[in-house]
Amino acid sequence: MSLEFVGLKEINGPLIVLDGIKDTSYEEMVEIVLDDGSHRTGRVVQIEGEKAIIQVFEGTRGISLTNTHTRFSGRPMELPLSREILGRIFDGAGRPIDGLGEIFPEERRDINGSPINPVSRLYPRNYIRTGISSIDALMTLIRGQKLPIFSGSGLPHNELAVQIVRQAQISSDEGGDFAIVFAAMGVKQDVADYFRRSFEDSGVLQRVVMFLNLANDPIIERIITPRCALTAAEYLAFEKGMHILVILTDMTSYAEALREFSSSKGEIPGRKGYPGYLYSDLASLYERAGMIRGKPGSVTQIPILTMPNDDITNPIPDLTGYITEGQIVLDRSLDQTGIYPPVGILPSLSRLMKDGIGEGYTRADHSAVANQLFASYAKVQDARSLASVIGEEELSDVDKKYLEFGRKFEQYFIRQSENENRTIEYTLDLGWKLLSLLPKEELDRVDDEMLAKHYNPQYAEEFKGE
């Protein structure tokens, strides 16, 4: 039932307050008609007895306390959906902005989604190849996983996101379509243009659904952008049987919008001023990834967030790390040496990697070579620390070999161009060639049979003089 009220009790920032409201519900959509006949959209965010607090998407400037008409729709915010959303560009509230007209929906869905029954969840298996060696080999992205990227201001996370969108693939024998849902929150106009232009120029836009919320758009819209994106992903995955990779950038902008909105409601702040429910709010987004028994599709998430002051203990990365299954951490020191992508190997991990790699998925030696590369690179850091104290000349021969291995590993394995799309076979072979720079007895994470098959000191000749 649609109800209409005239006049407001209070205006506070992006919020309006009505009194004497009955039979309304949380998240209900509202249409607001101003004195001049213009229309704005809002939603109910709080109910206290007969008082309803409504957030106005377009802001409250110019709204009158006396002559404003507020019409309650009786339903939550819904996104129009059909397969034709592929290749389309929307604003943060799901309205088309590419000039191609409206979507003719097969159905409309509540953007808040429905929780996946834990009993019906399938354990994530098989991997998504990104073509980036450091990710594919050492922190493999598993289909149905949520694997965030922790970045910092000025680091190339936008370029990395574009490269993943351009190169991401599932194995060709899997069946089922593969597509990307890309949501940008609080980005500047030039960054939005960079994303759009990159997808168009590389020819992948036809398999991408884009949601763009700009920095000058309302913060309220920023809060619903990831929910619109995930609703589109769930529809394509569980209704159309597609494998969907969702990239959300930047979750820090989302959390800051949530903090500003919480403050305007007068809620008691938690750590760093963020609302006390930040954990459950982030979980309501991240937990929409996964696979469902009896449904052929999957939703995989890569949320990207910039850590304020590179502080990994900030509430946003801290809580994200609790909810998600690992993280990819970008390293500023690697970036300063000109290495792209500057993936910090040691603080990064994928907790589901062990069950989606190996024989039948990637290659039988994948787990062994990944473990050995991690262990050897950890010893590189020890050798570098020792060299900074006593000098490189005083190191043992083995430690010098580790320093050489570390330089070649960063130069050849971690570093690759933005347009370089590596196969998993190339990546694993490159890992073995680099491990062959070390003495055989130092490779203690690999069994003798695998060593005999893959270890070859002659590989070191390929890196000489470099």
What does this structure look like?
By secondary structure, this protein is α/β, with parallel strands linked by helices. The protein folds into three domains: 3-76, Elongation Factor Tu (Ef-tu), domain 3 (Beta Barrel), CATH 2.40.30.20; 79-354, 3-Layer(aba) Sandwich (Rossmann fold), CATH 3.40.50; 366-463, no CATH class. The protein contains twelve helices and 19 strands. The protein has helices at residues 133-138, 157-167, 189-201, 219-238, 251-264, 278-286, 315-323, 332-336, 366-390, 397-414, 424-435, 448-454; strands spanning 3-6, 10-12, 15-18, 28-33, 39-48, 51-56, 69-76, 78-81, 89-91, 107-110, 121-122, 149-151, 178-187, 208-214, 243-249, 291-292, 298-306, 326-330, 343-350. The protein has an eight-stranded mixed beta sheet with strand order 9-14-13-15-17-12-18-19, with helices on both faces. It has a seven-stranded antiparallel beta sheet with strand order 1-7-4-5-6-3-2, with no helix packed on it. A two-stranded antiparallel sheet has the order 8-10. Helix 9 (366-390) packs across helix 10. It is elongated and about 85 Å long.
